[in-house]
Structure formats: structure tokens, C-alpha cells
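Dig into what follows:

_____
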Amino acid sequence: MGFNCGIVGLPNVGKSTLFNALTAAKAEAANYPFCTIDPNVGVVTVPDPRMEKITTLVKPKKEVPTVIEFVDIAGLVEGASKGEGLGNQFLGHIRQTAAIVHVVRCFEDPNIIHVHGGVNPDRDIDVINTELMLADLESVEKKYTKIEKTARMTSDAKLKVEASCYKKIYDALKEGHPARSVELTDEEKNYARDLHLITQKPVLYLANVDEQGLKEKNQWVKQVEARAAKENNVVVTICGALESEISQLQPDEQKEFLKEMGLEEPGLHKLIRAAYKLLNLITYFTAGEQEVRAWTIVNGTKAPQAAAVIHSDFERGFIRAETYNCEDLFKLGSESAVKEKGLYRSEGKEYVVKDGDIMFFKFNV
């Protein structure tokens, strides 16, 4: 499972408009051979202003940003868990993603019918959540019924932990709570991971509004925000129709257009960064005359494993990492100045890479 987010939502909430706007900038990711795997998979560049600053100071021949993948999952309908619509295919796709971007319609438009008539974010979120929980319930039930009797009769501690994990999740789902809300012990978490449950994945709500909704919060966005606050989730508000227009423009025209609209950046940038954070990802850089490149790792990764993202040999023959943070570079203006101040360090295998570190790995294979 890579660093990817599945985009879900009812039909006609603006999912595909958003997905197309996201992937209109695909050209930038053309040097990634996998950017055309599937019509519903888009590889998107992660916007990072630090990259531009590093490039200005290091002056490399080229710069390579890091990317994140979005999967457009067919519109979900009521009964999907029973195979309605593209039910099973939908659920199969979503199991393969690491996080969920849940698009909620927060705009009125007489020309775009709403599948349930009338705009009502709470109801829409419930329809989708219910389908996802029913799908999870089915897979947990199978495992739980299989193991429950054996666990009662056995003295095998591992089996008992596995059964207790399944029971906790099964009970929560039956009561209408997502798997991610269940408190598990560390041992139980290992079994939960193997279940690949959809409602265990982190979620971000994307409130899709019209232009007016961007200027002032409408009642529907407030509804989504109240819901998210209860669930400890994040909300990003975007106007899909506007993003679609922005994505068609050349970079210079984009800047002009955003300025006219009173926006600092495309809303999609906010979404991409929020998705990156949702996946608990951070970025480190490698910087030299040849290229400045951004690399994605999970927060908390140690130096040898961070090096493996570049090449497995780097981890296998890891000697040490030389590093400093990009913020020190911005303050002092050059790598030599960073060295003079004693901020250029040599770190070993236990070093936990920080967001914004500029790394140089020494290895020997």
C-alpha cells in the first residue's frame, strides 16, 4: 500500500470534478512511470514552498518534488455493501488505499440532481459511513465466528488476544461506530491491521461548495465541521467548479486569477497538504548541484530506513547521515555558513529524520 488516498462520496457530489482538477497537473508527474496505471489513479505533486527556497540557494540543474496518489473511487450508493451499484469493486478499491477523502456536497444547484433529493451533509455522510461499516462488519464477523469457539476452549494466549480484538471491533461496528474508534492494546493492534478494515483508515472531510460558499461559510459546511469536531476529523473546504477552472490555466494565469479571487493558493494545495498530514507523512530533501529532490517518509522514520527510500543499498550499507535542517539554510544562506555555525551534523543509525532535513547519506555496499 503506497501513500494514497481514496476519494469517496455519493454520486453527483463533485468527486470527479475534483479528481480531474487534481490530476490536470499530471504533466508535472510525467517522470513517474506509474502515473497512468489506471484511469482512476492520479499522481499529484505535493506543493512545498521550502523546495523553491532550497532551489534558489543551491541552484541545481533540476528539481524533483515528491508526490502523493489519489484514487477516484466510483460513486457509492446505498446498498453497496450488498453489491448495489459498483458495490464490491468499490469496496475492493477502497481497501487498497491508506486514507479516505470523503467528499460532501455543500452547494445547491438545480442542474445537478442530488441522489437523495436536497442537500443534507449529515445524511450523506451517514449513508456512506453505514455502507463502509456494513462491509467491515461482514469481514470481521466471518473471522470472529471462526475463532470465537476455539478461543474459549484454548489456553493459547495469542488466540485469545486475536479473538478479543475481533470481538471489540465487531461490537463497535454493530453499534454503528467505526473501527478506528475502538481502543486496542498493542498486541490487538497487530491483528486489527491484518483485517484491512475500511473504517480503520483515517478520514478527511472535503466540503465541496459553490463560489459563494468560499466567501462565507454556509449552513452545510457548519454541519460538516460540527460532525468532524465530534469525530476528531479534519475538514477542508473547496469549490470544485473553481478548482476545475484554475487547473486548466498556465502557472502565470493561475497566479493572476487567484489574486482576483482573493485566494492565496488553489484549494487543492490545501487538500494535498492535509492528505499528506493525514497519512502522517513528512518530507526530507537531498540537495546538490545536480538536483534538489524531495522524499516522502512516515513521521518517526530513522535515518537508514529514510535512506532506503532512495535505494535499498543505502540502507544495507548505511554508515552515517550528514544533515542539517532547511530552516538553518534559509536563515544563513548557504551550506558553508551552516557548517561554520556548527549546525551541520553527522548522525548514526538511531537518528530520527525531521521534517525539512537536508540529508546526505554515506554508505558502503
User: Anything to note?
Assistant: Residues 26-37 have pLDDT under 50 and may be disordered. The two ends are 28 Å apart (CA to CA). The first strand starts at residue 4 and ends at 8.
